[in-house]
Write a structure and sequence with these properties.
By secondary structure, this protein is an alpha/beta fold. The chain folds into three domains: about 15-110, Cobalt-precorrin-4 Transmethylase, domain 1 (3-Layer(aba) Sandwich), CATH 3.40.1010; about 115-215, Methyltransferase, Cobalt-precorrin-4 Transmethylase, Domain 2; about 230-415, Vaccinia Virus protein VP39 (Rossmann fold, 3-Layer(aba) Sandwich), CATH 3.40.50. It contains twelve helices and 19 strands. It has helices at about 25-35, 45, 65-70, 90-100, 110-120, 160-170, 195-200, 245-255, 275-280, 295-305, 345-355, 365-375, and strands spanning about 15, 40, 55-60, 80, 105, 130, 150-155, 175-180, 190-195, 210-215, 265-270, 285-290, 315-320, 335, 360-365, 385, 390-395, 400-405, 405-415. The chain has a seven-stranded mixed sheet with strand order 13-12-11-14-15-19-16, sandwiched between helices. Strands 3-2-4-1-5 form a five-stranded parallel sheet, with helices on both faces. It has a five-stranded mixed sheet with strand order 6-7-10-8-9. α8 packs across α9 (about 275-280) and α11 (about 345-355) runs parallel beside α12 (about 365-375). The radius of gyration is 26 Å and the shape is flat.
Length: about 425
């Protein structure tokens, strides 16, 4: 499926949320079903309407085949069946990418998460709602924080026991989980567990479940505030060492980039991912491309992406820039941290591709790279800052401050 919206000449497509049972449909949703000539849905949803004479077709697999069915049926009155509220992690995300809203009529219903909180008798407005359906469970690491309430839509890869195991791994073994199964069915049940107990148990659950989670425990594995300690990153060397921007430098770089939601960024010469991982974690609604050519650094970049859960918005691009940049979308901001001696060419390429109003930040440690930065900046209105860092170490039983090489940072903004 492409991203451009397609033309639609038939009646608006009706998208009906099923809720907990067919009897919960609104009069408007019921009228749409009664008038339908074609109904598309899951087998279980289609089976709920044996009395309707409309043609019934199950959703294709993969879902991309849906568009062929819709195009072939243009002009007919079509109803798509969905679970709960179609506009909440539902089929609407797929539909609205290709059809403008005026060709779609949505009939929302009670979602499984709403029903689960109702069964528990708890207010659900403080909860952070997440879908793990079709997404890697490690993505949960990107959002977990202490003493928070989460509501999770699950699938076979994110079972309650797998979620509990992950919680134990990140120091939240004391967390409480409520598993709501088969909501709206005769076999419905809601059970409460502690993460540490559930992780080691052999309890079986219905595949139709949602999980309510309240985090408790010491934590300390996942960061909850910008400035991830260097030793938390995998680099293949002594903790805190290796191809990794130091925390103090990293935070300055990110403050200069000033990422915003919806923006695309490049981390050119990403090393083990110190900048790009932290960038993606604190800007979850942005997209980061980390470009790196060194095989060992790429390995640790992947480890760090998984470790901190930024699998959804951090994309690793193996290869050498500028050739590796050709297929990437033009960035709103870019950081050049490594150039393998080709800094001038890298600066020229990135600056050319940078979108109007974008920000370019580059670092230099050697005198040669400093000259390259100054030469490239020329008469442009650049922002310059130099960071000299020293950290405490022990020498002959005494504390000394061990300095690191100073890092020069340049920031340029491209005129809108």
């Amino acid at each position: 499926m492409g991203e451009a919206q397609i033309a639609w000449s038939g009646p608006p497509i009706q998208v009906v949320g099923m809720g907990m049972a067919a009897g919960m449909l609104s009069p408007a949703a019921r009228a749409a079903l009664d008038a339908a000539e074609l109904i598309i849905g899951s087998l279980s949803h289609l089976a709920a309407f044996p009395e309707l004479a409309a043609e019934k077709i199950p959703y294709p697999s993969p879902m991309s085949g849906l568009w062929a069915i819709l195009r072939a049926s243009a002009g007919r009155r079509i109803v798509l069946l969905a679970s709960g509220d179609p506009l909440f992690y539902g089929i609407s995300q797929t539909l609205l990418r290709l059809l403008p809203p005026e060709h779609l009529v949505f009939h929302p219903n009670l979602s499984s998460l709403q029903a689960a909180f109702a069964r528990l008798g708890r207010s659900w407005h403080p909860a952070q709602c997440l879908s793990l359906h079709g997404r890697p469970l490690t993505g949960l690491r990107a959002v977990l924080q202490a003493n928070r309430l989460y509501a999770l839509l699950t699938d076979h890869g994110s079972s309650p026991r797998a979620i509990a195991t992950l919680l134990v791994e990140v120091g939240f073994g004391e967390s409480e989980l409520w598993v709501a199964e088969n909501l709206g069915m005769p076999e419905e049940q809601c059970r409460r567990f502690q993460a540490a107990e559930l992780a080691g148990a052999t309890v079986k659950f219905s595949p139709l479940n949602v999980v309510i989670l309240e985090t408790h425990g010491p934590g300390g594995v996942l960061p909850e505030f910008p400035g991830i300690p260097d030793e938390r990153f995998s680099t293949g060397e002594e903790p805190g060492k290796g191809m990794l921007s130091k925390r103090e430098v990293r935070l300055t770089i990110l403050s200069l980039l000033a990422p915003r939601a919806g923006e695309t960024g490049w981390d050119v010469g990403a090393g083990c991912g110190g900048v790009s991982v932290e960038w993606a974690r604190w800007n979850p609604l942005g997209t980061v491309y980390a470009i790196e050519c060194h095989p060992e650094r790429l390995e640790h970049l992947g480890i760090n992406r998984d470790r901190f859960g930024v699998v959804g918005n951090l994309h690793i691009v193996p290869g050498t820039a500028p050739a590796a940049l050709v297929a990437l979308p033009d960035p709103h901001m870019a950081f050049i941290g490594g150039s393998n001696g080709g800094l001038h060419e890298m600066l020229e390429t990135v600056w050319t591709r940078l979108q109007p109003g974008g920000r370019l930040v580059a670092s230099a440690v050697t005198e040669d790279s400093r000259v390259e930065l100054h030469t490239f900046a020329g008469d442009r209105a650049a922002y310059w800052t130099e960071l000299g860092i020293a950290r405490a170490e022990r020498l002959a039983g005494q504390r000394v401050m061990r300095p690191y090489l100073p890092v020069l940072l340049m920031k340029l903004e491209k005129t809108a």
